[in-house]
C-alpha cells in the first residue's frame, strides 16, 4: 500500500509517522521549496487530545523530544481590559502526564522540526490536481511536473486546500470579518518589563469593547533547544477598522499598523510591538468552514484545516492532530479494504471536527 500526503505543516507529518510505524509506504509533498522557518514559528496550545495523538503516532524518543522542547504552561488564562485590569481569570491545573493526555504549549516551528525528522518529504512540489483511476487508485499531479500514484491521497494542505476545491467544490470557507497582525518579541529584560504580568504566566488577552483585541503569551522552553524565549502577540480588529488592505503591506508597514491600532491603549503594549523583529510579523484574516454532510468516499480524503478551518481559539491544532491519529488508526487497524476504513474516519471526523468549529466561534474574543 502507498499513501500520498500533501502538506507538511503539522497534521500531515504526524499522519506520516503513524503510517510508517505500521510499515506503510508514505510520501509527503510540500509546496515550499524548503522549510520556511520564519513562517512557521509561533506559540500554539495543544489540548490533551493533541498530546494523545502525538503519543499514538510518534516513536517514543521523538515524542519525548516534543515534550522536552515544549513551553512552560504558566498558571492561568487571563482576560484584561484596555487599562490592563483583570476582567476574568481561569486557573490552569499543573501539567499532569497520564492516560487522558496533558495540555501542552509548543512553538510551532520547533514542533514542526520534530515532526519532519526522518520523513520522506518532497519539497518544492505544489499540488495541482488529482485523477481517480479505473483501478481504484489515485494519481496526483504537481506543478514541478512530478506525478505519483497511490492507494490514498490525503489533503493536509490547509485552509486554501486545492484538493478540497477539487473533491468538494461545494465546501465553503467564509470570512468572519476580522483581521490579525501577529509577531513575536524576544523576551529580553526590556520586554519582560513591558509585558503584562499575566502574559508572562500563561495566556492573556486584552479585549476592548469596540472589537479590538490583543492576545499576549510568553513562550519559555522547558529545556534549552537553541531557540530564544519570546512573547507572542496578536493585534486583532474588525477588518473595517483597518486603514488599508493588509495584504498590500510589507512587514515593516504591518508592524506599524499593529502599533497604531492600539495607540490609545497602554504605551507598553505598543512598545512590545515595536520591539519585534519585523521578519516575524505576518497578517491574515480569520476564516471559518461551513459544516458539510458526508460525501461519497473515494481514495482522496482530508485532515485538519483542509476540511474544518476554524477561528483561532486554542483548539484547532489539537483537532488537526487528532484527525491524523484517527486516520492512521483506521487505516492500520482495518480488517478489510481501505475505503471502508477511510469512510469510518470521515464520518467520525466530520462530527467532532465541525463541533470544534462551532466551539471555536463561540469562544472567540
Automatic annotation (TrEMBL):
Keywords: FAD, Flavoprotein, Monooxygenase, Oxidoreductase. GO terms for molecular function: FAD binding; monooxygenase activity. Residues 2-333 form the FAD-binding domain. InterPro entries: FAD-bd, FAD/NAD-bd_sf. SUPFAM superfamilies: FAD/NAD(P)-binding domain. This is Monooxygenase. It comes from Amycolatopsis taiwanensis.
Amino acid at each position: 500500500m502507498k499513501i500520498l500526503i500533501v502538506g507538511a505543516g503539522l497534521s500531515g507529518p504526524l499522519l506520516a509517522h503513524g503510517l510508517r510505524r505500521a510499515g506503510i509506504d508514505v510520501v509527503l509533498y510540500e509546496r515550499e521549496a524548503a522549510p520556511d522557518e520564519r513562517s512557521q514559528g509561533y506559540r500554539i496550545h495543544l489540548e490533551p487530545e493533541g498530546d494523545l495523538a502525538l503519543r499514538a503516532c510518534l516513536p517514543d524518543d521523538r515524542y519525548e523530544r516534543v515534550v522536552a522542547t515544549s513551553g512552560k504552561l504558566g498558571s492561568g488564562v487571563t482576560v484584561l481590559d484596555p487599562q490592563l485590569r483583570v476582567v476574568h481569570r481561569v486557573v490552569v491545573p499543573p501539567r499532569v502526564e497520564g492516560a487522558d493526555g496533558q495540555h501542552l504549549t509548543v512553538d510551532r516551528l520547533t514542533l514542526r522540526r520534530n515532526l519532519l525528522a526522518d520523513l520522506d518529504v518532497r519539497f518544492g512540489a505544489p499540488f495541482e490536481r488529482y485523477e481517480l483511476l479505473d483501478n481504484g487508485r489515485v494519481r496526483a499531479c504537481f506543478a514541478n511536473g512530478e506525478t505519483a500514484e497511490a492507494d490514498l491521497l490525503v489533503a493536509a494542505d490547509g485552509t486554501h486546500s486545492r484538493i478540497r476545491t477539487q473533491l468538494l467544490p461545494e465546501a465553503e470557507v467564509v470570512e468572519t470579518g476580522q483581521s490579525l497582525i501577529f509577531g513575536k518579541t524576544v523576551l529580553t529584560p526590556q520586554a519582560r518589563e513591558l509585558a503584562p504580568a499575566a502574559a508572562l504566566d500563561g495566556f492573556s488577552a486584552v479585549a476592548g469593547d469596540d472589537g479590538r483585541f490583543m492576545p499576549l503569551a510568553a513562550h519559555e522552553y522547558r529545556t534549552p533547544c537553541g531557540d530564544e524565549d519570546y512573547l507572542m502577540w496578536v493585534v486583532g480588529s474588525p477588518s473595517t477598522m483597518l486603514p488599508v488592505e493588509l495584504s498590500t503591506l510589507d512587514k515593516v508597514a504591518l508592524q506599524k499598523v499593529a502599533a497604531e491600532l492600539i495607540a490609545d491603549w497602554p504605551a507598553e503594549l505598543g512598545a512590545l510591538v515595536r520591539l519585534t523583529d519585523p521578519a516575524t510579523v505576518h497578517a491574515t484574516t480569520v476564516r471559518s468552514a461551513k459544516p458539510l454532510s458526508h460525501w461519497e468516499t473515494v481514495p482522496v480524503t482530508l485532515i485538519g484545516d483542509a476540511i474544518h478551518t476554524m477561528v483561532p481559539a486554542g483548539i484547532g491544532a489539537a483537532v488537526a492532530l487528532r484527525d491524523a491519529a484517527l486516520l492512521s488508526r483506521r487505516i492500520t487497524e482495518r480488517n478489510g479494504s481501505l475505503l471502508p476504513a477511510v469512510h469510518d474516519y470521515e464520518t467520525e471526523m466530520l462530527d467532532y471536527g465541525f463541533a470544534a468549529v462551532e466551539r471555536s466561534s463561540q469562544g472567540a474574543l
